[in-house]
Design brief:
The protein is α+β, with helices and mostly antiparallel strands. The chain has helices spanning 16-27, 29-32, 60-68, 70-79, 99-113, 115-122, and strands at residues 2-10, 36-43, 51-57, 83-92, 126-128. Strand 2 (36-43) and strand 3 (51-57) form a beta hairpin. The radius of gyration is 14 Å and the shape is globular.
Length: 138
């Protein structure tokens, strides 16, 4: 299993309506994206971010299907312009010693093949995650 985790803060000028609509749309991914096994979206407590989400995926194939699903890409295009700081990380019990590199490759290919999303990520004030594009490249 791969537990894909994100944490983010919104820009200060984001309206309550835009915030509520974005979070609701993120919650709908559980029914829109077949590769998702489980998902939770909501406020973060006890940390330095406003919100977070955890998406559970069966394996690397499901992970790649999720990352490139049209509903996920649409959410990126709508949601990332509202985001200030963003952290993405993964936790897995997959015994494959190369799973970390395989996850990074999914992100690398995604950013290469979907340049508008890579540009949105590059424009965030802070981004930490696998194969970070642009100024956030690690």
């Amino acid at each position: 299993m791969i537990w894909h985790c994100i944490r983010f803060t919104l820009k200060p000028d984001v309206s309550e309506a835009d915030k509520a609509a974005g979070l609701a749309r993120m919650g709908e991914h559980i029914t829109a994206i077949p590769s998702i096994t489980a998902r939770v979206v909501g406020p973060e407590f006890g940390g330095e971010f406003d919100y977070g989400a955890v998406t559970v995926l069966e394996d690397i194939e499901a992970y790649e299907a999720y990352m490139n699903h049209p509903a996920h890409l649409a959410m990126d295009r709508i949601g990332l312009p509202l985001v200030d700081r963003f952290v993405s990380y993964d936790i897995t019990d997959d015994p494959d010693p190369e799973i970390g590199e395989k996850i990074a490759d999914v992100h690398r290919r995604r950013f290469e093949n979907v340049p508008d999303v890579a540009e949105l990520v590059s424009g965030l004030s802070e981004y930490t995650g696998s194969s970070a594009p642009g100024k956030h490249r690690n």
